[in-house]
Design a protein that fits this description.
Structural class: alpha/beta
Shape: elongated
Distance between the termini: 30 Å
Order of helices and strands: EHEHEEHEHEHEHHEEEEEEEH
Strand content: 15-25%
Helix content: 25-40%
Length: 332
């Protein structure tokens, strides 16, 4: 019989309750929620009813407990680094929501705390396991598209936002809030061991706070495709999550459907460079054109619950690490 991990959740907002709590209630053979912490009394009372657990006003009340195998830090974004570091130093394994930290230095402190205590520091980067992203990776690895020249990723829509997630002092804004998902995917596709060149443009379009809700991020590296990453709340015509331009074809896709096509090299007309003007058989000026035979395929997500699928896969890796000693897949 598999071990059941005893879990505490910090925060009972949209992430703590609607993502983590919701998932853990579907996986009770491996996880049981024994405690939550939230400053709002009504959320504590609801958690106690829904999970049958202890409920605390602050995470500090968890620190003396020694019966907790995993703490999920779904607090406010600007609290992630400080609370996680404190938990690690007190000997807890921690799964922290994104953004993991507000700066590289803060994340370095978290990593050092994990090393010093010998505990796990994991980051909730579940979109790495999204079915559509796994399919994009599979298609690129197959080589049918040839060499990718540009990979465009767009997590766009049209929306206005007025909650704490649009405040800079709370680590809000599209780059911290939404950005970890597409940026993690972009870095996986770039597959560059060094630090890429980065160009970034941010703007405030529809938000009521002082943080950005438009981000354009360009990543380049030697012998790698250009990555064009966009997160926009002022795109009234969002169509593709992914668009790939490559030497033998291309791809376009959303989170539920992907289409890709490439030309048949076997059936392509034989061509060679000529510096002479092209002419028709009648001797008239001709344009450099040819007819290529295209091969097309499409994919539909087998699981309409794209988000919950990635959540389950991420929790699989955390459980395997804590119980079976498997390496973490998403590392700090």
């Amino acid at each position: 019989m598999e071990k059941t991990l005893r879990v505490a959740i910090i925060g009972q907002g949209r992430s703590g309750r609607d993502i983590h709590g919701k998932h853990l209630l579907t996986d009770t053979a491996r996880f049981t929620i024994v405690a939550v912490a939230d400053e709002l009394a009504e959320r504590r009372e609801r958690a106690a009813r829904e999970y049958g657990c202890e409920a605390y006003a602050g995470y500090e009340q968890l620190l003396s407990r020694r019966d907790i195998d995993l703490v999920i830090n779904a607090s406010f974004s600007h609290q992630h680094g400080r609370i996680t570091t404190d938990l690690l130093r007190h000997g807890f394994n921690v799964l922290v929501e994104k953004p993991a930290a507000g700066s590289p230095e803060e994340l370095d402190d978290m990593i050092e705390a994990a090393r010093g205590s010998g505990r796990m520091l994991a980051i909730f980067q579940q979109s790495r396991f999204a079915p559509y992203f796994e399919k994009v990776q599979q298609i690129l690895r197959s080589g049918v598209l040839g060499r990718p020249v540009q990979i465009s990723i767009a997590f766009n829509g049209f929306a206005r936002r007025w909650d704490w997630q649009c405040c800079q002092d709370m680590n809000g804004g599209s780059l911290f809030n939404t950005g970890p998902h597409p940026l993690d995917q972009a870095l996986r596709l770039l597959d560059y061991p060094g630090v890429p060149q980065v160009v970034c443009r941010m703007d405030r379009a529809n938000t009521f706070g002082d943080a950005e809700d438009y981000v354009k991020l360009i990543l380049t590296a030697p012998d790698r495709p250009l990555i064009d990453l966009e997160i926009s709340s002022c795109d009234a015509y969002p169509d593709c999550t992914y668009r790939i331009q490559a030497t033998r074809g291309g791809l376009k896709g959303t989170m539920t459907r992907i289409d890709w096509r490439w030309y048949s090299e076997v059936e392509a007309p034989a061509q060679s460079l000529t510096r002479h003007p092209l002419s028709t058989p009648e001797g008239l000026p001709a344009y450099c054109g040819e007819k290529l035979v295209w091969i097309e395929e499409s994919w539909q997500s087998p699981d309409a619950r794209v988000f919950s699928y990635g959540t389950r896969r991420l929790y699989d890796t955390v459980y395997d690490h804590l119980v079976h000693g498997a390496p973490l897949v998403v590392t700090p």
